[in-house]
């Protein structure tokens, strides 16, 4: 897996296309160690930039969007997530920000030990990258 900065801000659909054009997928994060590894790479790419996200696989389920829960669907075909990845010690899952839904996942430097944040799925100046990867056999 590797974090990439596309040439422009992307939404989740464009992020998926960016990875697929290189033969990869937007990759999910299975362990806290993986998210911390990506987080360190993001901090090198964007030193001092807080709340700029690199999409990872995971979209909040439709039922959770309505009932404000934190269950996510993974489309990469290989992510089996460890419960600790989305625990409050590693993830800040607020469901929305200023009334705008945040139903996608991103690795983000929030200035805390947390590495994952729920982020908007549409294009914004804070969605600046994507983590692409493939299944290891």
Automatic annotation (TrEMBL):
InterPro entries listed in its UniProt record: C-type_lectin-like/link_sf, CTDL_fold
CDD domains: CLECT (cd00037)
Gene3D superfamilies: Mannose-Binding Protein A, subunit A
Protein name, as recorded: C-type lectin domain-containing protein
Species of the source: Caenorhabditis remanei
């Amino acid at each position: 897996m590797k974090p990439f900065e596309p040439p422009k801000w992307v939404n989740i659909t464009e992020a998926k296309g960016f990875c697929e054009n290189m033969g990869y997928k937007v990759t999910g994060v299975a362990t806290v160690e993986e998210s911390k590894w990506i987080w360190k790479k993001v901090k090198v790419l964007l030193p001092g930039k807080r709340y700029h996200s690199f999409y990872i696989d995971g979209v909040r389920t439709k039922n959770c969007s309505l009932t404000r829960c934190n269950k996510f669907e993974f489309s990469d075909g290989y992510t089996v997530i460890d419960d600790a990845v989305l625990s409050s010690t590693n993830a800040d899952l607020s469901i929305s920000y200023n009334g705008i839904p945040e139903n996608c996942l991103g690795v983000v430097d929030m200035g805390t030990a947390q590495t994952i944040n729920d982020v908007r799925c549409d294009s914004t100046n804070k969605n600046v990258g994507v983590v692409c990867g493939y299944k290891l056999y």
